[in-house]
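In this section we walk through a basic example: taking a raw amino acid sequence and producing a predicted 3D structure, encoded as discrete structure tokens. The instruction is simple. Fold the sequence below.
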Amino acid sequence: MLILLLAIAVVAYLTFGNVKPSQKISFGVSFSKNQAESLGLDWKRVYRSILDDLGVTHLRIPSYWSDTEPAPGQFNFDDLDFQIDEAKERGRSIILVVGRRQPRWPECHIPSWAKNLDLARQDQAALNFTSRIIERYRDNTAIVAWQVENEFYLDSFGDCPQYKKSFLDAEISLVRSLDDRPIMLTDSGELSWWLASARRADILGVSMYRTVLNPTLGYITYPHPPEYYSRLGKLVRLVSGHGRLIVSELQMEPWGNPFVGTDSTEENYKSFDPEQFAKNIDYARSSGMDEVYLWGAEWWYYMKEERQISTFWDEARTLWE
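The resulting token sequence is shown next.
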């Protein structure tokens, strides 16, 4: 009975009551050159437009292993150098993602040469890659934090090997030994309790999704009130002691069926339309969080250039004016 009462109290705490809305939010975007290319776009042009036309000040950028080490020990940093240099020249800040699992499908971006390695050897190769990334960019003042892996504990999603959880601890230890910037871990805002990630992180980033496509139920909207995120964050902090909670991924694009660039506009709008753009921003403000990274900037640009629908891009611009 005591456990039941405690569970009811926790649910009531997470669900009811007001949280003071954020008066000032630092908005950023996650940018994926691979996503821009998948949409048939010139990714450098998209990236510069995000920096110069939108005026984005905060960026979360992946360092895909499959792109950067296409052959064992052979590194190509050109694309990553471009993104980091362009941001630094403009005085923008970057959270740089390192590791095997990084934002955007298939989640684990493993080079072809590493896919057939046994897990122990692949783990070591992944750690070697993380080491090279940190060593190359640790003197760059644009980078404010390292994100280690992406939603590591959400193993129900993505095309990833069944790696041991101890791998994450080894990778975190490696990053800490190479640089003293804060380490961020990310977790699903809706499908996790965050504690395993929070215990290991200086910054905990959680996703904030509203309408998704369920293979059985179709399009569904999560029932969580916006206060849920900051309230759960406070509970988790009491146990874990993590220093900061941010929104690492606010849904600002459709949930593809199967891919946003091949779906019709009508299909896109079933999960994300211009009205939902404003609603999701208001939802994030109401959560009480003060740093929010938007997910979908490549798609806004695609809609503007390829479908002549500039609403999303224009609305996004107002966030940094």
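Looking at the output, two observations stand out. The chain has 14 helices and ten strands. The CA atoms of residues 257 and 263 lie 6 Å apart. In the next section we compare this with other chains.
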